[in-house]
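subagent[fold] <- orchestrator: predict structure for attached chain, return tokens only, no commentary.
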Amino acid sequence: MYKFPDDLFTEVRIERTENNYYFIKNGEVEGNGRSAVTGARIRVYDGNMWYMSVTNDLDAVQAEIDNLATLAVPNKEIYDDPVIKNFGDARADRIKYNGENDIRRVTNEQRDTLIEGYIAACVDHSIEEMKTYYASYSSDHKSKEYYSSKGAAIRQDMQRCRMSINFDFVVDGVTTNGGKFYQELDFDALKNREQEIIAERDRALDYARNAVDVTAGDYTCVLAPFVTAMFTHESFGHKSESDFMLNDKTLQEEWVLGKMVGNEKVSICDSGDMENNGYTPFDDEGNPAKETWLIKNGVLTGRLHDAKSASILGEEITGNARAEGYHYSPMVRMTNTYMEKGTDLPEDIIGGVEDGIYVYGVNYGTGSATFTMQPNRCYRIRGGKLCEPVRVNVITGSVFKTLFDIDAVGNDFVLCNTYTCGKGGQSVPVSAGGPTVRVKKLTVN
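subagent[fold] -> orchestrator:
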């Protein structure tokens, strides 16, 4: 498609993105629009330095290549460079969303009907504590092309549509937010979710009316699947992104492949070829997605790589170089990351706790040597039964200790498509998943 200069590695990433959004607050439309962007990022490498440019004029791509080539120093051994060896050379067409399932076919009338139907079914104006309700729809369709002087020629597309209904309940001056957010790859998957939304609305209202402050201390904690997913992503998944390790000898020594790092019940995987929110059949360096087991039966078995990190650490490429858009350079990112389900029944996991905390939902989490979760719904466990809702500000623990302290793993696996992950100033869509798990001890405040 392009004439690439001799003795230099060259790549071209092209993206075409179309977005749609619609937002209502208390019955008033506050956002409504569509947008479309086309652009390309060109990179040339001579073994010492990358030369890059970005353009929104696809007719100018060849001129950009030629200009960057004048800045670089030709290198006859460029394809022996250990980093360049790890760039992909696949020729593939993975266009999947250009037929009846193309969300660009969804009209504004269909979009509006969906949202207004949910408002009519789920907003109960007789609830005195409800002060605000929000409803939104958004979607994006992205087609991507990747060409390189190694011979790569890849076409792929991905799409996502999102819908949310949320409520603010105010009781004694304290605001509790509740509702549901969905993110799917197909518009029809957003339909017929009324009962789920009403159930979450009522759970939030009950929590607002009845929650009491938790007594701070160390507790046995049972994590619902959504919370396990957050823990898996934030507290362990990011540790598996190997660019963190390149200049950190301590991490390299702590996270040696083959080391026992958790209970044998714990297995964690990342896979970009699953058709979920982190779907990435080919990464932004032209490499195909792989199923990468990060932990298998408690043993550290793998980590995630781009071309550079794989070459430095001497490990296999995994297809995890991702960029937010064509105007960014790729870095090591997760795709669909999950803790594998176990064999324990969720009711037995809770039933085995004499005094503890059930963490039903979480707003966000962070992870390093110590991880932090900010829950939005917790319940006291007494005598193996769920009791009153409790307000918890933060839950913390050691990542290393917690992986060993997981003593029960449920058979109720859920993969959550609702995540967007931020790192290094870039955000990419991901999925995270897991089952109900029990942790012997976490600090609750």
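orchestrator: received. Logging for downstream: Residues 420 and 429 are 5 Å apart (CA to CA). The chain has a mean pLDDT of 96.
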